[in-house]
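A student in our group prepared the protein record below, which I am reviewing. I have pasted the whole thing underneath without changing anything:
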Amino acid sequence: MTDAITNNAIGRTEETPDDQPFFLYLAHTAPHWPLHTHPEDIARYDGVYSNGSDATRTARHETVNDIGLFQRNWDISARDADVHPWTKGKNTDWEARKMATYTAMIDRMDQSIGRLVAELKSIGQFENTLIMFFV
């Protein structure tokens, strides 16, 4: 679906006369249920989350602090009380695959936005374009 939406958007830019402004609302449905994307995208993230969400969250927090991304380091926030620790999970293999698929969906969306940006550049409209991303 992500590819189809992007292909349609690119087609619309090609149809627009060069001397006319245009509005393009690109509303990807990824990443929402159902979780699915290209197998090759999922394969890139195979095993990335096998240590669990707690380990991933901690590693990302440490990286942000280590590289000095912000003016000061901060302590990691407490885990949501409604979320059980990864080690207490019953279906961690499935959860890790679900996280990999979700990430792959975002990756595919990013690739698609990149394709649209390349199209805007090729038709000379990139410098005349406002891009906003909402979540």
